[in-house]
Design a protein that fits this description.
- 22% of the residues lie in helices and 22% in strands.
- It is an alpha/beta fold.
- Strand 5, helix 1 and strand 6 form a beta-alpha-beta unit.
């Protein structure tokens, strides 16, 4: 496997229906390479940011194969959906991710960082803010 030399500290991995994963450039999201789950150790990064919101949730258990010392970022809201996800729905995703990876390894984020570009936003700033507020409200349920 030949991966581009990116020293970003994290890879964005996007699941594909064929079982492969696109390894995406950290700032643009452009696919740079493809890997299977058994090649994840070769990526050798401190964190893996996963775009798994929505229809990709059933593959979450497979992600336990990521290196045990890596932080795992899980997309818990879908930037392509203009509706604000209910806090209960987000909390369920957070709970499942905690069960799979442990709270200490977990980073929560929107899929694709909202993939908002100045000249072509996928969602408005207001919707992005509301989705972030919903994530924060879901996280409050897990604080002891």
């Amino acid at each position: 496997m030949s991966l581009p030399d990116i020293n970003a500290g994290a890879w964005y991995l996007q699941a594909r229906p064929d079982g492969w994963w696109d390894v995406c450039e950290p700032t643009t999201g452009e696919p740079l390479a493809e890997v299977t789950a058994d090649q994840w150790d070769d990526l050798n990064q401190a964190a893996y940011l996963l775009m798994v919101c929505g229809d990709k949730q059933p593959i979450m258990a497979l992600l336990q194969q990521l290196p045990a010392d890596a932080r795992i970022g899980v997309g818990v809201v879908n930037q392509k959906n203009q509706a604000i996800e209910p806090v209960d729905e987000i909390a369920a995703r957070v709970g499942r991710a905690i069960d799979l990876f442990g709270a200490d390894r977990l980073l929560l984020h929107p899929d694709c960082g909202f993939a908002t570009f100045a000249d072509n936003p996928i969602c408005s700033a207001g919707i992005a803010e509301a989705k972030l507020a919903a994530i924060a409200a879901a996280v409050e349920r897990f604080k002891h």
